[in-house]
Amino acid sequence: MALNRRQFLIGASGLAAAATTMGLGACAPGSSGGGSQGGGNQGGKTSLALAWWGNPTRNKNTQAMIDAYMKANPNVAITGQPGDFTSYWDKLATQTAGGQAPDIIQMDMLYIAEYGTRGALLDLGSVDTSKFVEGTVDSGKINGKLVGVNAGINSALIFASPKVFEKAKMNMPDDKTWTWDQLIEIGAEVASKAGVPFGVASLLQSDALFGTFVRQHGKELFTENGLGFDVPEAQAWYDYLLKGQKAKAFGTPEQVSEEQPKPLDQSAIVVGNAAMQYYNSNQLEAVSAAAGEQPKMLRGPSLAGKATERKTWYKASMLWSASSKSKNPDAAIAWINWFANTPDAANIDLAERGIPPNTEILAEVKPKLSSAQKVVAKYIEDIKPEVGETPIAPPPGGGTIQTVIFRHGIDVLFGKTSPADGAKQFVDEMKSNLKV
Amino acid sequence: MTDLQTTLSDETTLTGPAPQEAIHHRPTGRDRARSAIKHILLIAASVIMIYPLLWLIASSFRPTEVIFRTPGLWLNDVYVENYTKGWYSLSYPFGQYIINSFIVVVGAIAGNLFACTLAAYAFARLKFRLRGLWFAIMLLTLMLPFHVVVVPQYILFNALGFVNTFVPLILPKFLATDAFFVFLMVQFIRGIPKELDEAAVIDGCGHWKIFSRLMLPLMGPAIATTAIFTFIWTWSDFFTPLIYLTDPIAYTVPVALRSFLDATAGSNWGAMFAMSVVTLIPLFLVFLFGQRFLVKGIATTGGK
Amino acid sequence: MSAISELSTIHRAKAKTPEEKRLLAKEAGRDNKAGYLFLLPWLIGLVLIIGGPMIASLYLSFTNYSLIQAPEWVGLANYARMFDDPRLHKSLAVTFTYVLVGVPLQLIAALAIAILLNEGMRGLPFYRSVFYLPSMLGSSVAIAVLWRQMFEVDGLVNQILRKFGIPATTSWIGDPQYALWTIILLHVWTFGSPMVIFLAGLRQIPGMYYEAASVDGASRWAQFRKITLPLLSPIIFFNLVLQIINAFQAFTQAFVVSNGTGGPADSTLFFTLYLYQRGFVQFQMGYAAAMAWLLVVIIAAFTAINFYFSKRWVFYGD
Questions:
Q1: What contacts B248, CB < 8 A, 6 or more positions away?
Q2: Is there a domain that residue C251 lies in?
Q3: Which end of chain A, C or N, has fewer beta carbons within 10 A?
């Protein structure tokens, strides 16, 4: 009897697809000869896999850099692996577990110790960092070994919206002399006069501003032995945020909670709901484009009212690392050297990742920067006298500080816990995260 | 074929009356009122159901800066650049990613239909030793969160050299790893009266004939459901393509959509929304088309 | 009612005499060759693709495994630690609430709409697609952004409530007390999948049963109780079991709406979200594996209970 259509389809597909799977699978576009990625030589060329996270702009820039490098070094073949920040780390962890980590890895300060202390990163001591601005090299060192080369400098600060201040008929605050309490006063005033929910937004999320707060109290966020601060500092911070909330300077707890998961394009200062907001310097261009106006860059406050004592630091917005299991370590190091020390790379990247730490490169690239990036470069330069010692990279488990400080802090702001209890829980959880 | 069956086979048309209403031919005033109320409720519910989609579509016609400042649906200007430029914003024209997704999805559907029907027939109709144990194990595979299985599986596929290919995305389907569909089909088969099997056995059919000639046609709705769900779930799967596909040219749609976003700097939300809308269209069409097979019911069960 | 009762006796579980039981036992094992042949693809898959990794994950649960370095045996330490882990307890509470509230709500919505749509009406394919649409969107980042926006203090939901004169000042998404409910609502909104399965099941009920019942003078409600529910019970059972299994493992919606944090204040920290944080963000895959197996035990218990009680209300054709 004749097969009906469904039977035929299922039978045929069963046979065909089994074969096709193998065929299709092996011939998936991009898998040069059977799925090995990077590492190893193919046809006489040294091949490298280069992974980064970014948006379409950075992807285009990085691909252009890869092409330029390959043109200048015809015996090297680089395959790019772009991704987005959130899923990048899941993928990297899985690849590392499987022994397939990319040769060159874009790295973040939150994760560098996780990978560095476990031997996953190559020693980059042979990369030339002699022309780097002081304080920008050490952040990439784990236990004295350089495992990450600074790919761009940034610093934590506060953006202020000229439009909102104008609406409140107030001048921009003097960020060289203001104290934490003045931040509350000014925030409360501008919020009420301009009718915006936030005088200052996203303070609870800012582990960096908390870091300056802690350092102004004579402690550190992290030391070699673990947590560098304890309950008094944490409680002082929570007390401070609660004070700001009561003064109606920092928004209501509901607003603070709603703001936290929002992406940059939806953040309070971009949509006009905040007079000031915590940000990093290298995000000026993105925020300007999204908000339609360029925010003013304000230094964070200090206890003493003196900017030179605010103990800020040059942060590496991201770093370049290499896999310790790379089959072509020298080629990887050569590329990182090229990125850090040649104008060719910087001319393509144009400070998109942050201000180049190599002073000579920066000088050469500066005229080509966009106006926003020029403002950022000037700011980074201006704050040089205020920059304190570079803190050590967050040790394994320390990268969680952003979420932990927020989680306990929001309970305090909602009034569910006292600042003392919240601070204790925060510190206890950090200590247990660092221990394991 | 009795008169009863010929009447019932009319049921297979899309808009024909369903079993109950085939009986009552005279719409009373009460029926009309009830039908009107039903339609009003359904339309209201529909609006609630699709409001988010409408917002997505409306937002896709706004530039990124405007999207988060305008919560409403009304469009003042229609901004098509999200579509025209968005298509080319990534490393490859977006069509490349759609094609990749199609390849994976077609393979997955073929695999599931092939393997799950076989396994379901075995569990539902055949008596073999340890059947209960294997069935329990099959259910067990559904209960383990995939995040802890993913790393050992990755290591396995890596050892076989299948990373950066579509094999890890398609091969498991041919081995009935989607226990959800096996169980679904088992339930459907168990709803089919055994008398039909017995009639076939009397006619001299062996297991393969019973399976292919009797079961498969009767399992129409289950097969259609499996195909549709496999399509939609595989199309939207993010994590597996994320870890197995390293070369952007092989990315599937969900991974490509994420490339528009960057948590640390500005993202191209407008383009991402636009491409999301574009990739919804195949899903919607598949469902619209596949519905017909869901409707073709078991009209021929009156086989006495 | 005689026609209905006649038909339904065919589908009721039969009592067996000792003699019949012996014969049946002999029959079991009769289809060995055919059974294993049909099962072959699944068995291969089990051994190659699922079994190995599952056993590996069980092994990992007894180790400290950072993903970056090789696993290190620690025995029962991970399991012991679970007792002292307040976030784990919180995640269990969150997940149980979600399962016990969300699953019934979603299934009732799915069944109600499926029955409504099964009656045949104008525009049926349109309605069916419309009600299924949310399921296609459910895990998209774009919808998560909108969902957050809708439930903010000044979002769409509160705006509508205010139009009805209700003073709505809560932030449904920002307040730890209510955030979970927005996710439950999101789950109920995506009732399309079980609805489609119910529809397929409803369509499989032979029309002649309803005809015979009408001939006997049965009301629509009696038809529903005596025909629809029993004959649909295998599918109801399926949806119940699988929705519970899936709900315990719910991840994506909470992940995209809370941006991976499980916030605010862990109020949306689903069990698998916490598992993911421990495994991938904190590089404690061994602990995550232990958590996974704890979940397997919980889900298996619920499933076993389901199967046990199913004998009382599920009717099969065999």
A1: A30, A80, A81, A82, B90, B91, B92, B259
A2: yes
A3: N
